Amino acid sequence: MVERRNARLAVNDPNQRYDLWLANFSEMTFVRWTLSPDNPRDPVWAPDSRRIAYRVRSLENRELREVVVGSSKESVLDSSKFIKYPDDWTRDGKWLLYHTDAPDTVALLPMSGHEGTRVILDKPGGRNDMRVSPNGRWIAYGSNVNGAWEIYLASFPSFDRARQISNGGGVQVRWRRDGKELFYLTSDSKMLAQAIDPLAGKQIGSPRVLFQTAANPAPEVYLYSVTGDGKRFLIREGDQ
């Protein structure tokens, strides 16, 4: 995933035991960040670009962890028994949003202080790849609650006023930095942009096709990142 300042990218390399790698676009370097037997995956940048949260999955560990940029020292954020998928940070950096699929829950994990984990949604129906809007009022996410994967938008953190954004399939939703546009992949691999009213949380007009990709749309795998201004896309194409 590209950091919010758009100069670096944190990625997994499944050919290297799912270790995390850090690509620096300005320096044109690509270096391994972790060397772990626990299969680190799903890296998510903190808003200050100084930390990354990720999950590990091995026979012994199903943890959420954090690593500081420039350091290899890992901190355990959560070690409860369920598999946890990190999705996003709140923009103030105080909470990490994650979901589980057994059972289906969405929760906020505190990054400081003495508050406990807050479960904000506990209802059946698959949900993943959740993204908090830049103003913190909305959450965009993928769900197959109605049978097919589509993109939804709801109030955050209450998850009320939910409405379907895509029509005919959608995965991998991302916000533009100003909160006025959402990007997502369709079931036929097109990249779409949907204008959003960031105050009302409503669609403006119809989605527009940006371009055709060669990605294999899937809800579980990070397939692309987009810069904050929405002008450049880095896409993983072909077989996953």
Description:
With 240 residues, the protein is mostly beta strands. The chain has 2 domains: 1-114, TolB, C-terminal domain (Neuraminidase); 125-240, TolB, C-terminal domain (Neuraminidase, 6 Propeller). 0% of the residues lie in helices and 47% in strands. The chain contains no helices and 22 strands. It has strands at residues 8-13, 19-24, 29-32, 40-45, 51-56, 64-68, 74-78, 84-89, 95-101, 104-110, 118-121, 127-132, 138-143, 150-155, 163-164, 171-175, 181-185, 190-197, 202-203, 208-212, 224-226, 233-235. The strands form 6 sheets. Strands 16, 17, 18, 19 and 20 form a 5-stranded antiparallel sheet that branches. Strand 2 (19-24) and strand 3 form a beta hairpin. The protein is globular, with a radius of gyration of 17 Å. The two termini are 16 Å apart. The model has no long low-confidence stretch (mean pLDDT 84).
For this entry, give a set of tags.
mainly beta, five-stranded antiparallel β-sheet
Describe this structure in a few short sentences.
This protein is mainly beta. It is 0% helix and 47% strand.
